[in-house]
Amino acid sequence: MKKMIFSTVLLFVSLFTVSAGEKTSEDFSSGEMPQGWKGVKGAWEISGGAMSGKELEADHHGAVFMIPDAHTDSSFSCRFQLNGAKGFGLSYNHLKGHLFRVKVNRGGVELSLDKDKKDPASKPMSFGKAEVKIEPGVWYELTCEVKGDTVELECAGEKLSGTHDKLAMEKTGYRFVVAGESVLIDEVSFSSSK
Q1: Is residue 159 very low, low, confident or very high in pLDDT (cuts 50, 70, 90)?
Q2: pLDDT tens track for 22-79
Q3: CA-closest candidate to residue 174, choices 142, 148, 150
Q4: How large is the average pLDDT for residues 120-148?
Q5: Would strands 140-147 and 73-82 be described as parallel, antiparallel, or unpaired?
Q6: Segment 163-192 mean pLDDT
Q7: How would you classify the pairing of strands 97-105 and 85-94?
Q8: Residue whose C-alpha is closest to residue 112's, from 133, 135, 95, 89
Q9: Is residue 1 part of a domain?
Q10: Which of 13, 57, 104, 185 shows the smallest number of beta carbons within 10 Å?
């Protein structure tokens, strides 16, 4: 009987570990870009134990950096510092386009569902905004958790959340977006599950 209970507990723990997903953390102390992570637009580099990103005028687009991680539910966090950038964002995509994003600028934080570019009637939908002063040169922590049809965000002491059935779809990973020059990013950490 004891063996059966132990086996059942061990099976439950194994299943929980697999479903919870493995945590990935990066503090850029190695000076190397993690495999598969890449800048899509703009200029990105690692220096002084952090990653920096800035928009390039020639791109006619904000700087974009991609971290691949196919998932449905996830927990994501990073630290960031505005150093001249007009704005900074964390964007989630699904297989066919943009899904939702976090926008940060010196006046606050916003969480919103993206417009479906393939649907002419679609419009972006704001889940909420928080007015908070984001000081240049100061480190802030951003955390974003997606579970089913709900997303919860915390940034600079402010909390926002939103619910929509589209949030439950599979996502392709995480994207940093920078408008202007520049943003420092450090201590990126995420875990996910399908």
Answers
A1: very high
A2: 899 999 999 999 999 999 999 999 999 999 999 999 999 999 999 999 999 999 999 9
A3: 142
A4: 94
A5: antiparallel
A6: 96
A7: antiparallel
A8: 89
A9: no
A10: 57
Q: What are phi and psi of 134, to 5 degrees?
A: -100, 105
CATH number (domain holding residue 72): 2.60.120.560
In-domain check, residue 152: yes
What contacts 117, CB < 8 A, 6 or more positions away? 97, 98
Count of the separate structural domains present in the chain? 1
Task: Please tell me what DSSP assigns to residue 169.
Answer: S
CA angle 87, 135, 190 (to 5 degrees): 60
Does 128 score more than 70 pLDDT? Answer: yes
> Is residue 10 included in any domain, yes or no?
no
Domain span holding position 172: 24-193
Q: In whole angstroms, what is the distance from residue 98 CA to residue 89 CA?
A: 13
Please name the residue that has the structure tokens 């964390």. Answer: 90
Percent of all residues in the chain with a pLDDT value above 90, rounded to a whole number = 80
